[in-house]
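Hi R.,

Here are the chain sequences for the assembly we discussed:
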Amino acid sequence: MKPNSEQDLAQLITDANGPLRIQGGGTRSYGHATGDVLDMSAMSGITLYEPGALTIVAKAGTPLSEINATLAAENQRLAFEPMDHRALLGTAGEPTIGGVVAANVSGPRRISVGACRDFLLGVRFIDGSGNIIKNGGRVMKNVTGYDLVKLLAGSYGTLGVLTEVSFKVLPNVASQTTLVLTGLDDAQAVHAMSAALSSPYEVTGAAHDPSAGKTRFRLEGFVDSVAYRAKELVQVLAPFGTPSEEDTDWAAIRDVSAFADQPGNVWQISVKPSDAPALVAQMGAKAVQYDWGGGLIWALTNGGDLRAKLGDLKGHATLIRGVADVPTFQPEPAPLAAISTGLRKKFDPRNILNRGLMA
Amino acid sequence: MEMPAPNASVLSRKDQIVSRLRAVLHDNAVISDEAETRAYECDALTAYRCPPLCAVLPSNTEEVAAVLKICHEMGVPVVPRGSGTSLAGGALPTADSVILGVAKMSAVIETNYPDRYIKVQTGRTNLSVTGAVETNGFFYAPDPSSQLACAIAGNIAMNSGGAHCLKYGVTTNNLLGVTMVMMDGTIVEIGGAHLDAGGLDLLGVICGSEGQLGVVTEATLRILPKPEGARPVLMGYDSNEVAGQVVTDIIKAGVLPVAIEFMDRPCIEATEAFAKAGYPMCEALLIVEVEGSDAEIDAQLALIMEIAAKHNPVELREAKSSDEAARIWLGRKSAFGAMGQINDYMCLDGTIPVSQLPYVLRRIGEMSAEYGLGVGNVFHAGDGNMHPLILFDANKPGDLELCEAFGADILRLCVEVGGCLTGEHGVGIEKRDLMTVQYDPADLEAQMAIKDVFDPAWLLNAAKVFPLASSEARRAA
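And here is the predicted structure of the full complex:
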């Protein structure tokens, strides 16, 4: 099934007599949705781009690469730096902007500028009953009615099939540099990242790789400004050592390339940074990577239920790669699970959209 | 503005309701005397007033839960209230409602600098959140102009913005977690000190739901390190078109100012007469502020001034000192007060795509002549959030209605050019009946379905946000 328009899609959903598995580029394969594939790739194209208003609107099946290229031509970008899951998950295909939104995918810059959902200004979608629904719009400030924009971001298609999304974009930067500290243990590394992120020097990436023993800090902006802030940040980091300036491939950090060629399950764990080192110590993973100043842990394991080792987790753990007899997403406390179930019943009463993916 | 008729059964049970509430709260936390409930008859949309059945001022989450449980059992409508600064009537009571005020709940529960958050009770004012962390070099970014008085509870309900959101975002971008009491008294924790939701983004839909989904009693807020410094530049132009083009050119040049403020001639004239900030008399005035170290500010302002100079400004003034910076901001910050000196005014906050600025300002000018009511425009140009201030005389019969009709026409125009009805004040009762201009029935149905899940009996602030005709069946059920 490959609809060409909102009307087609609405009709197709109305007429569906079984579950539908929504697919953009098919590159983010985690979770266990069942049903016939609903291929969104034909609903593609940028419908509006106003560089002077920092706004872009595109159909959900638009390739992310097309959006990135269009923005780059005007020296702008999606600031939340969406991760490319292909190498980690061993998938092929072309990531789409709808997929990015459905999974609320961000990257290292999430720690300073916000997540995909923070830049998302508007959505159009078809709910599980075939209704065409819009929310938000194309302007940066909009509190008109409830914010279904945030609700749809990260709902993995279980509330509706996205057809069009609009974003706030930001100017590209003239230069960047990375300061690197070596030899810190996890706890020291998180302290150092907290110190850097508490400084006024606008660190836009703070990641720690325990196996390489490297803690990295990214600065971006105008050339003189980056030079100045790098100098100041060296002072901030002095208690933890003397950082060196190194060329760093932040796309590799974003895409967790370190785990791409290693077998095992991969978990994505969101916690408050200062909790992270102790949790890592108790989870007994084969390897971990820290991003978001310690607030994001990527864990590589041999299988099993990582959550069982984390106790009463103040945060959430998602199984991104691998098979385990556990839910993909963090189980919610009963009252929240009841709300989530209630919302899904309202938006998809027949439970046909990505059935089984989130609950 | 029509409000639903009060429920006679609730009115007749007032004594019984009050006595049950008194049983779970301190005596002075239940206000039922008719003289005293008048203090809660309106918020900052003062044209509409109605004393509530009673008002309660609980001290903690458990007391809020006890109140809501009673109201739920007895079928009593509840209107949550922060500091009552809503310009949209978000806290306007109905005669059969209990006002649930969070004013007594203003404590700081936790500050955590390494993880960069603060947890507060939601009756705390916006400015005092920053007050609690600024000696450690941090601040809370959303800065609505009522920040001295407005409460975090109301900020979350309305997803409040401010002048600096081009860089820092609005409330929803700075809210990490909440403790919320559902209408049936259930206490839920959503989010926390970590980032992003593990399941559906319930936090995202609660923020901006205008107190219709639950009562948020505690909030975990992201705090940011204070920038080294900030400095504005002021520029004046002979036309709105040119000023609009300057805004676009600055944004396209890759500079991201923290604020770009715009004032039109009527507003400049009013503020000059009132505050004497030394603004040039011209059609359009821009204040652009950037942040960083002194050298970084110099570099950014040089780039901005270069762009500004290309468009033949009437005046181009860079703040060289904090004193000069304060003078540049003085007029802008007194704009509302200045307009208030002239007459009563109604403040709208529709948002438009920045590219539509000159057209929208021209149309507002034409409509102003048609309606015979003056209007001044002051707004956040970087994000297109307008603040037309329509002048009227509250003592002149028919003037308020004329002003409301003019305002509605401006908001229709905002939607027509691709914008929205409200950028930061919320819908409340003020824009409730215009929702159908922006949203189709299916769009509104999807939103109301969310309320059905959180508050199936439609007891929480139910006469707001949705046109009464759209929500009638649900409210009556």
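Residues 399-416 of chain B form the longest helix (18 residues). Chain B touches chain A through 95 residues (CB under 8 Å).

Let me know if anything looks off.

Best,
T.
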